[in-house]
Design goal:
Layout: H1 11-14, E1 17-20, H2 33-45, E2 50-53, H3 65-79, E3 84-88, H4 94-107, E4 111-115, H5 124-136, E5 142-146, H6 148-151, H7 157-163, E6 169-174, H8 179-189, E7 192-195, H9 201-206, E8 211-214, H10 221-232, H11 236-257, H12 259-269, H13 286-298
Parallel strand pairs: 1-2, 1-8, 2-3, 3-4, 4-5, 5-6, 6-7, 7-8
Family: Belongs to the DapA family.
Keywords: Amino-acid biosynthesis, Cytoplasm, Diaminopimelate biosynthesis, Lyase, Lysine biosynthesis, Schiff base
Subcellular location: Cytoplasm
């Protein structure tokens, strides 16, 4: 019987087990919508209840707005009634972000993932004003994405507290990994919280997170679901086992190869073709593929 250990906050908009889905490309380098449909179907069939499209793992820096929206529409047609579709809409330009937010809503997104404005390193006042402007421009629920290692600027705790007052800002994807700080914010803000670091998925659940937005979930979606379910049912021994034996080798592979390269190569090894990354990201070489094969085997997903 379920003990209800995990938080239910945000599940209606963002789900619990989400994969930040890669964007498939064909041999000609164009977005392969057929492969996108097939990948989305595979992930949903394996237990994923939410997909992030056009995030960093979806190669948002090197895909056009038209390509992003075409993939969103195709996936919506394929699995839209079965999962929550979250559109990656954040940029370092507030006006462009608002345009992407509104276009994603028109294309059928259920929710939005909006990253901290990157590279320009705005002040906390600027970060807050950016997110507030975006929140005022849409009725869709927004998940903030705090990843200072990529963006160059964190969303400070006081800024998160202020932004939580906006009715459309309902969640945060945490790739900062400060569990003590996050635990307090989860309680104070009422925001749904999602792990953005796969090695911390289980610890995040323990402090009140709703779920995770995963990259290694491409290779092990069923195990990711089982980890969440095991925790929810109070089977902590099983959850710890999955975290150590499945998540750890896959997270190690991601650390070596990068999320996009690891995810696309892992899918290929599992018989799911989604093409290669676009430059400047490159796929793994032969030696790296063999190391990845070892990791997938050790994780029990190959």
């Amino acid at each position: 019987m379920s003990t209800g250990l995990t938080a239910k906050n945000g599940t209606d908009a963002f789900g619990t087990v989400s994969v930040a889905m890669v964007t498939p490309f064909g041999r000609d380098g164009d977005v392969d919508l057929t492969a996108g449909r097939a990948l989305a179907r595979h992930l949903v069939n394996e237990g994923v209840d939410s997909l992030v499209l056009a995030g960093t793992t979806g190669e948002s820096p090197t895909t056009t707005t038209a390509e992003k929206l075409a993939l969103l529409k195709a996936v919506k047609e394929e699995v839209g009634d079965e999962v929550k579709l979250i559109a990656g809409a954040g940029t370092n330009n507030t006006a462009t972000t608002i345009e992407m937010v509104q276009a994603s809503a028109e294309a059928g997104a259920d929710a939005l993932l909006v990253v901290t404005p990157y590279y320009s390193k705005p002040s906390q006042a600027g970060i807050q004003a950016h997110f507030e402007a975006v929140a005022d421009a849409t009725e869709l629920p927004i998940c903030l994405y705090d990843i200072p290692g990529r963006s160059g600027a964190e969303i400070a705790s006081d800024t998160i507290r202020a932004l939580a007052e906006k009715p459309t800002i309902r969640a945060l994807k945490d790739a900062k990994g400060n569990l003590g700080e996050s635990a307090a914010l989860i309680q104070e803000t009422g925001l749904a919280w999602y792990s953005g670091e796969d090695l911390l998925n289980l610890p995040f659940l323990s402090i009140g997170a709703t779920g995770f937005i995963s990259v290694i979930g491409h290779a092990a979606p069923a195990a990711l679901r089982q980890l969440h379910t095991s925790f929810e049912e109070g089977d902590l021994a099983r959850a710890r086992e999955i975290n150590a034996t499945v998540m750890k080798p896959l997270a190690d592979a991601q650390a070596r190869l990068g999320g996009v390269s690891m995810a696309k190569a892992a899918l290929r090894l599992q018989g799911i073709e989604v093409g290669d990354p676009r430059l400047p990201v490159v796929g793994p070489d032969d030696q790296e593929v063999e190391e990845l094969r070892r990791d997938l085997t050790n994780a029990g997903v190959l």
